[in-house]
Amino acid sequence: MDTLLKLSPAQSLLLRNAARRADGHVIPPDTLRGGARAKVLTALLQRGWIEPADGGHLLTDAGYAAIGQQRPVPKDDVQPMAA
To answer: Which helix (H) or strand (E) holds 58?
Structure first.
């Protein structure tokens, strides 16, 4: 990445924890409550680093890039299931 992004500790925590999850879901810790939680999630949404999904939020490709990672590629032997 050419420029380092300035992330707050809470933003970094949420993005890095979501990147560790196979599904990329953003799950704020219980210690991040109320207005602080809303402020962090709003900032991440505005920057396009997360997106609303299934009553929660998912990490986007831009979110992975913000922490210097790439979205994991599914293994070739795993086929997506039809709904």
So the answer is: strand 56-59
